[in-house]
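Hi V.,

You were right to ask for the full record rather than a summary. Here it is.
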Amino acid sequence: MFEDFYAQLEKLGIVPVVVLEKVEDAVPMAHALMRAGMASAEVTFRTACAAECIAAMRNAEPSMCVGAGTVLTCEQVDQAREAGAQFIVSPGYSNEVVEHCIELGLPVLPGCVTPSDITSAIEHGLHVTKFFPAAQYGGLATIKALAAPFVGHRFMPTGGVNTANVREYLSCPAIAACGGTWMVKPALFVDGDFSRVEDEARKAMEVVRDIRG
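Predicted structure:
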């Protein structure tokens, strides 16, 4: 159903999970990530300006794949889509949200950490799901255990993914991409300087290129 998006996700390798408190930070964030070769962003709906930030990033970097994260309701799906979001990520599994995204033709990555969650996703034609919070739910060991019976299903682990373990995650065939915050933590750009974001993102993309070419 969303095969083109899944192929794009595979190429991206890492999707930065971005929390922005100010719209003014959206454009420099987009530019920093793109300069580093990290052509995506999951802008979380944890802040009131999320939709505005998505629109600003899309306008600033048209070739960037910008999605909405922490999406809990159909109303948020509609807000994200109107702002230009190209995909939706949810922390958990909601039939209502998933079915709404499918109706809209908008790729969705719901959070799935149990066999029942994954079964529901597969029944809706989804072949990649978010695994969150990855560290607390057993990380790569759990993903490998789930991948055994759900042949062909793949995951995007988020939560506890960092520079120390991202290589191990990406080396697993069951991993489509990793979500992470380590290269976009607010402390890195609190002073308005996004050079540290760019540096961390570039290091992360070197790992992606090393593993996936």
